[in-house]
Amino acid sequence: MTSTRHKSGTDRIREALERINAPFDIVVNIQGDEPFIQPEQIKTVIGCFDDSQTQIATLGKRFGSMEEVENPNSPKIVLDNNNYALYFSRSVIPFVRGAEREGWAAHFPYLKHIGLYAYRADVLREITELPLSSLEQAESLEQLRWLQNGYKIKVGLTDVETVGIDTPADLAKAESLLSSR
Predict the structure, then answer these.
(1) Does the first or last residue of the chain, that is N or C, have fewer Cβ atoms within 10 Å of its Cβ?
(2) What pLDDT digit, counting tens, does each position of 97-153 carry?
(3) Cα–chain-centroid distance for residue 172?
(4) Where does residue 52 fall: left (phi above 0), alpha (psi -120 to 50 degrees), or beta otherwise?
(5) Which CATH superfamily is domain 4-180 in?
(6) Strand partners, 62
(7) Number of C-beta neighbours around residue 38 at 10 A
(8) What end-to-end distance do the CA atoms of the chain give, in Å?
């Protein structure tokens, strides 16, 4: 038996995926700015592939306040009725007509994007060949390249809060969280 120390990174990843029953044709990618992803969130993303139409999967979590929704460093997701992403934006979308802005969250379930992705292996190979898209360049969100090219992104929903690190204030929040553990 080979010790963990002598196993390749690929072997360790395969073993971790086996422990959570992930199929080997699924590739999981946690972005470096999301160091607090939890195992149950990985399971949720992998569960998106129970739907055979899923090509790419990611996570969304309902925002807690309108102030959080308005933060351009927290991308928003708008879903279709089957939990596939219609669009990602740094702007507050959708606009809730006929309501005061501070009350919009009571009228619409705004979702925050959490930077955890999973891909079917063949899709991952395809999307790495795609050129930058106009939507991606406008919003600085890579998932818009995939949507603009017709790929479907299934969004698993989570209630687990993570601390994404996009700004110096986020880093301070993450350091505080780590020191309290």
Answers:
(1) N
(2) 999 998 999 999 999 999 899 999 999 989 999 999 999 999 999 999 999 999 999
(3) 22
(4) alpha
(5) Spore Coat Polysaccharide Biosynthesis Protein SpsA; Chain A (3.90.550.10)
(6) 111
(7) 13
(8) 35
Of 109, 115, 167, residue with least CA distance to 143: 115
21 CB-near residues (< 8 Å, 6+ apart) = 46
Nearest Cα neighbor of 124 from 32, 56, 39, 23 is 56
Residue scoring higher pLDDT (113 or 168): 113
Question: What pLDDT is attached to residue 168?
Answer: 84
Which pLDDT score is estimated for 173? 80
pLDDT at 175: 82
Do the Cβ atoms of 147 and 135 come closer than 8 Å?
yes
Question: Rg of the chain's alpha carbons, rounded to an integer?
Answer: 18
Residue in the structure block whose two tokens are 């979702």: 111
Cα dist from 51 to 11, 26, 29, 84, 114, whole Å: 27, 13, 19, 11, 20
Query: What percent of the chain stands above pLDDT 90?
Result: 63
Both tokens of 117, joined, read 């992705």
